[in-house]
Amino acid sequence: MDNVVFRPAKLLITITNKRSGDVVLAAIRKGSARGATMASGRGLAQYFTDGGDADGEITETLVFSLMYEEADSVLRELLRAGLENPELAGGLALVLDAAMMVRPGGRTENTESAPQRAGSERMSTGNTLITCILTRGHADEVMTVARQAGARGGTILNARGTAAENDVKFFGISLVPEKEMLLIAVHNDNAQTILEAVCALPVFSEPGGGIVYTTLVEECFTFSR
């Protein structure tokens, strides 16, 4: 393990309209982000807003970036970009704790002496990220129920499960490779109600149909209109 370094980090997830991915990338690079991954998703309604079409659907761009000591700089530049670029309006940024990040390196590192990280003094923002991994075709149904229970928006990503022959033998069930990931950011006071409503759906009682997990959000902000 001498060539691997384990470091505490933060995961930044930004969700904006399809035209704004490059603006986000430029901002976080200016803040010294070391890399990012971009993906397309299908957005359903708006996060934490009272206006707009509740049934609206748009194409969204998601940018995932792991941050370490540069976290404060990255977030500062992202907030500045939100003020200077109207096309980011209505987007959402979440900061999650990535307790252990693995990166190549030629030396060991004492993670206990790692620099202070963005959000470490603000562990609870009152928000939770609900992630559902489902057999493809069920995410819209889950989002409908989640919205009825109080969720205001979500993003669907197409994905693919392993579903190899050995996996089927190991789990003893039929695994479907075509998946969807549904990301729903909610207020903590609604999280339990939404989870109970979602998990009552038949898809979660089917072997291999889907799983749900939650992550506490350390920082959350929306880009102003």
List the helices and strands and how they pair.
Elements lengths: L3 E14 L3 H10 L6 E9 L11 E11 L3 H14 L7 E13 L22 E9 L3 H10 L4 E8 L4 H7 L6 E10 H12 L10 E8 L1 E4 L3
Helix pairs in contact: 1-2, 3-5
Task: Using the 3D structure, state the CATH architecture of the largest domain.
Answer: 2-Layer Sandwich
CATH fold topology of the largest domain: Alpha-Beta Plaits
Largest sheet: 9 strands, antiparallel
User: In angstroms, what is the radius of gyration?
Assistant: 19 Å
Q: Give start-end ranges of low-pLDDT stretches.
A: 48-54, 105-124
Strand numbers in spatial order across the main sheet: 8-5-7-6-2-3-1-4-9
Oligomer: single chain
**Proportion of residues in helical segments:** 10-25%
**What average pLDDT do the residues reach?**
79
Count up the domains.
Answer: 2
Could you spell the SSE succession in H and E letters?
EHEEHEEHEHEHEE
Structural class by secondary-structure content: alpha+beta
Which overall shape is indicated by the principal axes computed on the Cα atoms? globular
Number of helices: 5
β-sheet strand percentage: 35-45%
- For this structure, what is the CATH class of the largest domain? Alpha Beta
User: How many β-strand runs?
Assistant: 9
Structure keywords:
Alpha-Beta Plaits; 38% strand; single chain; globular; nine-stranded antiparallel sheet; 225 residues; alpha+beta
